[in-house]
Amino acid sequence: MKLVVFFAVVVAAVAQQPPRAVREQFRVIYEWRTIDFEWESPTVRETYLNTSRYIPQNVLISGINYYENNIFLTLPRMLDGVPATLAYIPANQNDTAPKLKPFPSWEDNTIGVCDALQFVQNIEIDRNGIMWILDNGRVGTLTQNPSTKCPPSIVLIDLKTGENKIERIPLSLDTVDLSKSYLNDLVIDNRDGDYAYITDNSAVDPGIIVFRLSDKKSWKLRDMKSMMSVPEATIFRINGTTVNLPVNIDGIALGPQFIADDGIIDRTVYYCPLSSFHLYAINASVLRNESLSEKGEGAIRPYVVDLGTKASQTDGMKMDSTGMLFFGLIGNSTIAEWNSTVDFRVGQRTIARDPNYIQWVDRFTFDDHGNLYVVVNRLYNFVKNQVSLEDVNYRILRSYTGLKSYVYGEDLMPPTPPQNAAATRTIAASVLVLALAHLFA
């Protein structure tokens, strides 16, 4: 299968950005008409096909992450016939449409077994080599009869050991609803006990779920004004296809650490509904304040900042370690970036545009070598049940940026308070008296 290159579109806003490594054009490195797997045998594959446990046109790539030369891909079970919901491919290979290997194994993707993965929308891998998996536990979300197999959970796998053992942590039922919550995306904050900030784009109760690993506790914060879809942004038009998707809070990103006015170390969490043109921000310290969740909807509203509007709607987004945000503009067939040290209203910059190859940007990830990867999945066709087996439906694009993921951002230390001069003199005098006492004893 012949792969192509499309060119980055550079605009005048580049003058506002600090000097960075020379960028490459985005290139298509993998592309698939349908997703296939490395089966145990051809007979097993045929059995799965004959029993509708594998329906090729129903397997969609959504999330992406990278670890030690492997690319991990999520395959949410929105429709029937998705045999594995988490898989991987080696990052460097000659096959342009590689078959996926279920992760951690075929058995660990068994539907209806709560020790296994049920419905994985997205994952993140933190700086310690821990894979954080969002498992909704409910399958067939685009069918007439979605089925709750297991509770919505955080699933952890320590990739460093190579054993790939699954640890499932069901979220509190005070936080999630078995039939309505939809764990969409997450960022990891490896400070003070390790936190995950998770978007729940439930149609009736959207919000940000905060999960603290140290005590496995979770809570949810809601703000309808910034987390709900808006009517003027529910219509998506891509290459002549129109789809109506009133989807609530979706993409999320985490900025670098900074020292707040009160001297604490904080970070900014960025988020947006899928069906919105706005980007919002709130400090992580606010989300960590569990008492605000007890006050109900709108308690965090005074702390939410509307940064401004984008030219189109955005699905996934990703922050690098220095504060550069990468995001898609779905209706414009565009990949964009924003240096978060610059006003969002004037600092956005288009870095790639192509109506043929950038059709619904979903998720981003960085590797260990300064490359940025992007999943393009034509989701608008998938939700309308119009996936053509004759067309390329899923692509992974890559561009060298010289950057790395936000999880490797610099750790800051709180400022050291100035030493009290009078107290210092008193301590010094006390030491002197003590020394003289020993001398003349």
TrEMBL record:
UniProt KW Secreted keyword = yes
Organism encoding this protein: Limenitis arthemis astyanax
Report the domain of life of the source organism: Eukaryota
- Assign the protein's first listed, main location to one coarse class: secreted
- The signal peptide, as residue positions, is 1-15
Name used for this protein in its record:
Yellow-x
Write down any Gene Ontology CC term. extracellular region
Q: Which UniProt keywords apply?
A: Secreted, Signal
One short Pfam name that applies is: MRJP
The protein's location, in the record's own words, is: Secreted
Which InterPro entries does this one have? 6-blade_b-propeller_TolB-like (IPR011042), MRJP/yellow-related (IPR017996)
Similarity section: Belongs to the major royal jelly protein family.
